[in-house]
From TrEMBL:
Stretches assigned to the 4Fe-4S ferredoxin-type domain: 157-179
E.C. designation(s): 1.3.5.1
Signal peptide: none
Entry keywords, A to Z: 2Fe-2S, 3Fe-4S, 4Fe-4S, Iron, Iron-sulfur, Metal-binding, Oxidoreductase, Tricarboxylic acid cycle
Essential cofactor(s): [3Fe-4S] cluster; [4Fe-4S] cluster; [2Fe-2S] cluster
One function term, GO molecular function aspect: 4 iron, 4 sulfur cluster binding
Gene3D superfamilies in UniProt: 3.10.20.30, Alpha-helical ferredoxin
Stated name of the protein: succinate dehydrogenase
Matching Pfam families: Fer2_3 (PF13085), Fer4_8 (PF13183)
SUPFAM superfamilies membership: 2Fe-2S ferredoxin-like (SSF54292), alpha-helical ferredoxin (SSF46548)
One GO CC annotation: plasma membrane
Family, as annotated: Belongs to the succinate dehydrogenase/fumarate reductase iron-sulfur protein family.
Amino acid sequence: MTTATEAPASSETDHTPITVTLKILRFNPEIDEEPHWESYDVPAQRTDRLLNLLFYVKDYIDGTFSFRRSCAHGVCGSDAMQINGINRLACKVLMKDLLSKDGKQTVITIAPIKGLTTLKDLYVDMDPFFEAYRSVKPYLIAYGNEPTRERIQSQADRDRFDDTTKCILCACCTSSCPVYWNDGSYFGPAAIVNAHRFIFDSRDEGAEERLDILNDSEGVWRCRTTFNCTDACPRGIQVTKAIQEVKRALLFKRV
């Protein structure tokens, strides 16, 4: 039994300093011909987020190290990167989940997400990603006169597309897709997810326009249903399911 004056047994372990090795794929186009790996020994605690360790590298070891970050709370999606080969958000990854279980030195590999051109170190050119996003018209389309009151929607109608409202445009899903790696002209999972969000919105009148766009040779039919996108999504969106629902809407002309 723990008394009121005693700290929980796990608190000492959580705050015990440890040292981990970050193996980061570095690339500076001004001096490097090819990306290369560099390793950094960084102090940490089990409760640290990986993002904290990246800041340590930049602030105390190498100020030229570059990566994107913003809110640091898993909402903005800025710090998407490959962590031990898996697309994740650095701000959502805790050190206790990455530490070696056998007592050996923990080595964490970090690289930029794939399928988008690396501009420097861990940040990539997001323009093609957002171009695909904008091309599916990710906004409410309504014709006729403006309503005199708000557009009412039932809870059931809202639930129909609730899952795809969670997208934070981090590109984890799109950059985990092997089709997108091989052909960047594919719209990619994130664009289709955001089209889904409005295609199945009962207040929207632009479903046919979006379905015509996604019926293109670079649209939903390029999906090979590998589920990489669903596995990579940090918000738990059923991405593959959303893509299949858009395919069915095209096949049966029914939303």
